[in-house]
Automatic annotation (TrEMBL):
Family, similarity comment: Belongs to the NAD(P)H dehydrogenase (quinone) family.
GO cellular component: cytosol
A Pfam family recorded for this sequence: Flavodoxin_2
Full protein name: NAD(P)H-dependent oxidoreductase
Matches recorded under PANTHER family: NAD P H OXIDOREDUCTASE-RELATED, NAD(P)H DEHYDROGENASE [QUINONE] 1 ISOFORM 1
GO MF terms, alphabetically ordered: NAD(P)H dehydrogenase (quinone) activity
Annotated keywords: Oxidoreductase
The keyword Oxidoreductase is annotated on this UniProt entry: yes
Domain Flavodoxin-like fold: 1-212
Length: 255
């Protein structure tokens, strides 16, 4: 496989950094190709602005339209184009980051904001004007894995834990970014109590990460419902016969 590893942690000597090194070493030993985007080392700019789209100072910035026009005309900022080329090259993406405030570090959120522009990550249509998202789109066929370090213990992220079940806590990323753009979202790999880990915990985490990478091509993805698979009505609400009486994020998965 060809794997793009997007790494977002400011300290390479952290547990997250050490796991990154183990993961890339494992990919090589497993015979995969990889490319890396180390966002802090790249000094990645996370802020969307008019310079992304070669827009003049007096022109009004309407992000969706201007990003689509710049993408189609080849006028996107070179750093954005470089990341899109990596994504197009890859069969799978690994986003590795510490979970901060239930979400992505700002630098990684900004990578998503700037790279997944209209025409590339969203805003695509198919036959008959069908909108291609949630399982369809330019990135369909690719796999995406979130590899996360979390300060909290595992139990608070259980189904009755105060933090909520991890796949639901990560719903904006797994469903709203990976699946929305067409990528198959794999169950996340998480290392809990990361700020209290010693050598034994690191060894266990490295072993667990290697095991996930060994099955990167074969693991079953989360069974999210496709938008155009017949389960949703014209308002993108589940039809009455689908999961009747149930609500919540879990209804958007099958099985």
């Amino acid at each position: 496989m060809k794997v793009l590893w997007i790494y977002a942690h400011p300290e390479p000597r952290s547990l997250t950094g050490s796991l990154r090194d183990e993961g890339l070493r494992a990919l090589t030993e497993l015979g995969h190709e990889y490319r890396e985007s180390d966002l802090y080392a790249m000094r990645w700019n996370p802020v969307v602005d008019r310079e992304d789209y070669a827009l003049g100072p007096d022109e009004r910035l309407l992000v969706p339209g201007e990003s689509a026009a710049a993408y189609e005309s080849g006028q996107l900022s070179p750093d954005i184009r470089a990341e899109q080329e990596k994504i197009e090259w890859a069969d799978a993406l690994v986003l590795q980051f510490p979970l901060w405030w239930y979400g992505l570090p700002a630098i990684l959120k900004g990578w998503v904001d700037r790279v997944f522009v209209k025409g590339f990550g969203y805003g695509l249509t198919g036959d008959g004007g069908r909108v291609l998202r949630y399982g369809e789109g330019k990135l369909a066929g690719k796999r995406a894995l979130a590899a996360i370090t979390i300060g909290s213990r595992a139990m608070p992220f259980g189904p009755r834990g105060i933090n909520g079940a991890l796949p639901e806590a990560l719903f904006p990323l797994l469903h709203g970014t990976f699946w929305y753009t067409g990528m198959s979202a794999l169950p996340p790999f998480a290392v809990h109590s990361s700020d209290r880990a010693g050598a034994p915990e690191f060894e266990a985490a490295a072993k667990g990460l290697r095991a996930r990478l060994e099955t990167l091509a074969t693991d079953d993805p989360i069974s999210y419902r496709p938008q155009n698979g017949g389960d949703y009505d014209e308002d993108l609400v589940l039809k009455p016969h689908v999961e009747p009486g149930r609500t919540g994020l879990a209804v958007h998965t099958r099985g």
